[in-house]
Amino acid sequence: MKSKLLIAIGLTSSLLLASCNNASKDESSAVVQMDGQVITEAEFFQTLKDRNGSAILEELVQQKILTAEAEKLGITDEEVKEELETIKSSFGIESDDELLSFLQSQLPIKTIDEFKTNFIKPNIALQKLAAEGVEVTDEDLKTYFNENYMEVKASHILVDTEEEAKKLYEQVKAGGDFAAIAKEHSQDPGSAENGGDLGFFGKGQMLKEFEEVAFAQEPGEISEPIQSSRGYHIIKTVEKKLPDFEEMKKEARKRYIEEHSRPINEVMDELYKKAKVEVKDEQFKDLFKAE
């Protein structure tokens, strides 16, 4: 999810900056003393720079650039609040205090407002820049909604061999009770006791081969045996349903735009060029050069 992108960006760099800000300028200052030996702050931070410097520098440049872009775009408080709620939902967190506690285990931040300014606003800016030029008509959105929000209720009979599947399929086609046959013969421990009932599911939740058949059939249809990595299935499509379009329209539009947005790397490459990034440290002089 793109809303998580800038949570990751800055984890390492923020921690390092916090340490650097607290560090003495005296290169002889010891971080560790042991048996007459010392590890100095200069040695410690040079090691961090050598091991993670490229990634940290790139993260810092990204954050600076995107913070500036967020100001230009005029990101509103309402947009920030909405994104904050999305982030909390994605982590299964309900309150701001709970989120702050989680973030403070990874980031040197003191308040949610600091998180909004340094992470959420830049993230929204990145999403908006990536989505520039993406247009969605009501017709496009309705088609996307029908294709991606449909849920199917299905039952199945799962067995190991094609021979057994064909035999059970003939019993079903001859009028046999699907649920009773599934309960007696299906080898799916999760559904056999319920007569093969799998309940409702959306796209992307089942094996591809299974899903294609379940969604393609009309309610009441029963498939011939199909093979998947789990064995042979006889699939009965029981019911199809769509949530209310008007209720889901805002979410569907957001998902559509995200899926049709430009790749993040492409957007950042353009921003690097626009910002005329010039690296002064010889160790990282090639970091932002165009390939």
Q: So what's the overall shape?
A: elongated
Please provide the ordered H/E string of secondary-structure elements. Answer: HHEEHHHHHEHHEHEEHH
Class inferred from helices and paired strands: alpha+beta
Q: Enumerate the spans where pLDDT stays under 50 for 5 or more consecutive residues.
A: 1-13
Strand content: 5-15%
In whole angstroms, the N-to-C terminal distance is 27 Å
Sketch the major β-sheet. Answer: 4 strands, antiparallel
Helix content range = 40-55%
Average residue-wise pLDDT: 89
Rg over alpha carbons: 27 Å
Number of strand segments: 6
Total of helices: 12
Strand order of the largest sheet: 4-3-6-5
Counted up, domains total 2
Could you describe the 3D structure shown?
The protein is an alpha+beta fold and 291 residues long. The chain folds into two domains: 2-134 and 262-284, no CATH class; 150-241, Chitinase A, domain 3, CATH 3.10.50.40. It has helices spanning 5-8, 11-22, 41-73, 77-90, 96-104, 112-131, 138-148, 162-173, 178-185, 208-216, 245-259, 264-275; strands at residues 30-34, 37-40, 151-159, 197-202, 226-228, 231-241. The strands form two sheets. It has a four-stranded antiparallel β-sheet, with helices on both faces. The chain has a two-stranded antiparallel ribbon with strand order 1-2. A hairpin with a 2-residue loop joins strand 1 and strand 2 (37-40). Helix 2 (11-22) crosses helix 3 (41-73), helix 3 crosses helix 6 and helix 7 crosses helix 11. It starts with a helix and ends in a 16-residue tail after the last helix. The model is unreliable at 1-13 (pLDDT under 50).
